[in-house]
Amino acid sequence: MRPTVHDIAAEAGVSLATVDRVLNRRPGVKAATRARVEAAISAIGYERDMAAANLAKSRVYSFLFILPSGDNSFMRGLESRVHEAVRRAAVDRVAISLVTVPPFDAASLAAALDAARELQPAGVAVVAVDAPEVEAAAMRLKEAGIPLVTLVSDLPAECRSHFAGIDNIAAGRTAGGLMRRFAGPEPGRIAVLAGSMRVIDHRERLEGFRQAVAPAGHVILPVLEAHDDPAAAERLVGALLTQEPELSGIYSLGAGNRGLIAALRLQKQARPRAVIAHELTAHTRAALEAELIDAVLNQDAGHEVRSAIRVLKARADGVAVIAAQERIRIDIFLKDNLPFAEGGDEAPAPSPDAA
Amino acid sequence: MRPTVHDIAAEAGVSLATVDRVLNRRPGVKAATRARVEAAISAIGYERDMAAANLAKSRVYSFLFILPSGDNSFMRGLESRVHEAVRRAAVDRVAISLVTVPPFDAASLAAALDAARELQPAGVAVVAVDAPEVEAAAMRLKEAGIPLVTLVSDLPAECRSHFAGIDNIAAGRTAGGLMRRFAGPEPGRIAVLAGSMRVIDHRERLEGFRQAVAPAGHVILPVLEAHDDPAAAERLVGALLTQEPELSGIYSLGAGNRGLIAALRLQKQARPRAVIAHELTAHTRAALEAELIDAVLNQDAGHEVRSAIRVLKARADGVAVIAAQERIRIDIFLKDNLPFAEGGDEAPAPSPDAA
DNA sequence: CTGTTAGCGCATTCAG
DNA sequence: CTGAATGCGCTAACAG
């Protein structure tokens, strides 16, 4: 049997209330008594039973997710992962609310963070836009003692407690490594399609990509900025494919892949040897299967949401997380290892009572 | 506030004890009463608070892991992931024991499963060897009502409740897809290094690999069986490299990669264009960094262990799992997206009490 | 400053 | 067959 508060009380010769006070760092205990209790705690190797504590407190963790609005497929997928989490949350005593703000709008995001602070949630998760007003609002949250987890898109480390997302430099390098091998040994010309170079994720991916591709002698054409807009992407890529018939690869490091895919479909004969994009959505998945795209780098939105919740809970409780479990992988999908289409949860046979 | 047993009792006009009897499907309740209670339960949308239930029961889930002994790097890594889980387990009321049996030894494994059954654990996880006596022992566990999760290596679906491992056919296809692209457009000769064709995982990987590689016109040389033995692998690959100077690729689908790597290191000039192996270990990691291997397909042993525990717990409780969370990915590692070396857990600042 | 007491939601004796 | 009472490990009034 694991030791309980009673064991501590007996060992230290005090009452349960006093033990509870020192366990929860509450005032009103003489220093000497506190020391005795703490000695007892470590002597018998006590560890608090969080489930029992939460039961007694009728505690519910209230978390707030702040996501960008708009029709970005990845973000909408992320939102539906949050909704799934909301449904599951009750059984774990967590209540999740969700608000959306206009994408890339630093002022709105900062306002949302300030509004969040007023609500005094147990934690906040946000798809960040790295701008001074957002950083300032994040610091205000920190001062209010509210843990903040950045999701997908990060802020400087001192502004948040944890980042649930991928290493974008490594992702760019990975795309570059695949590009080098897919495009073949002889140096060629490679195009990069980006959302906006103002977003840090995109800059980092480009940087990593350059690191990996440059040594092989390939030429990287001037970056095409489509601002995550499918129509713009289609126009730019269409023009590219006619101007550069010998193109050996395209790396699409942002959103707006619908446009890229449409342009490739129109000119299938002129398709470069290697096309690599980010985020597995219905569109990129179909393009992989149709062999219009060769590889998709992905971050698992479901994992990111679950991880954010676990980390916020751990922060609220002041306990450690399993680092390996919270590392978001850079998934590489080829048409050969596509997971089954997004499904709901499993429905097991409710066994009466095994053991 | 979520409804509790008291609410059910009030709604149905019975006592707590009766509610408890129908909740836990225990006898001693008149059919009519039972019906009233069940009506009340679904009327108010009751969901049991597992944390409170476990507290009242002082329940501890006892799970048993059965792993192969031997010096296979992947299996030893798996074992250390189990040890980590053992350490963390107490706080979740789970007690994990671990036993090892000689690798590929069906009789010993079957005996271990039977011994496990005697202990009446709440669940068993096993790296299976698919043999008749093992299947029989698995069925006996099932009849005893003890959930069984296969880990890494599967059994027929009717013998176990869940498989925590990768889809090996898809893994083979993935290796083939990479091979086709890495080896270049012109058809070439490709070697396959296997452990033993008697293991189902290896047969499946080969099958998937063939599916993906054959259409491109490559020739797959007769499979080299090294029985997961580094020395044998080194000999076989050494001979191969001298006999086949024009080799375009090697796919190592089993263990014993140390030997493969040693042979490649010795004859670096004769290195084929594409070398693909399985499982990220210290050896394959170093070989990726040294560019002796181009890609490593991996299954995350830590994820597999955590998943097995979650699934066993869910089975014991008769609740659903999050399917997406329990799907084990086929990770693709290039030198560009290697994760940081295996580390311990994070040490957070224990915040006093946030919200 | 410290101790007593009554629950949190549920399971389980033991009477009726 | 059914109900009242007690306790799991912990927290939170309320007294002293």
The span between the termini of chain A is 19 Å
Which pair of chains has the greatest number of interface residues, and how are they split between the two chains? A-B, 78 and 77 residues
Biggest sheet descriptor of chain A: 7 strands, mixed
**Helical content of chain A, roughly?**
40-55%
Average pLDDT of chain A? 91
Rounded Rg of chain A: 25 Å
Strand composition percent of chain A: 5-15%
Given helix and strand content, the structural type of chain A is alpha/beta
Report the count of strand segments of chain A.
12
Describe the structure.
The structure is a homodimer of 355-residue chains. In chain A, strand 1, helix 5 and strand 2 form a beta-alpha-beta unit. The C terminus of chain A is likely disordered. The first copy, chain A, is α/β, with parallel strands linked by helices.
